[in-house]
Amino acid sequence: MTKVEITEWGELAIVEKLLSDYTQHTSDRKDPRVEHARNLLERIRPALVEATEQL
Q1: pTM metric for this prediction
Q2: 7 DSSP 8-state letter
Q3: Which residue, 10, 9, 41, is CA-closest to 24?
Q4: Using one digit for the tens of pLDDT, what is the confidence trace for 6-40?
């Protein structure tokens, strides 16, 4: 697996927004990757909260 380091708050916010939109607008029946996107979103949100608190 490849690891990506997000170095700016804005980058993290973009990833969170993309995943959020994807999971809201894509049906599980159409795309089985939605579940993976939801899991990733759950992992990203705490980092976004932490980054926001550090601003």
Answers
A1: 0.70
A2: -
A3: 41
A4: 888 888 889 889 999 999 888 878 888 899 999 99
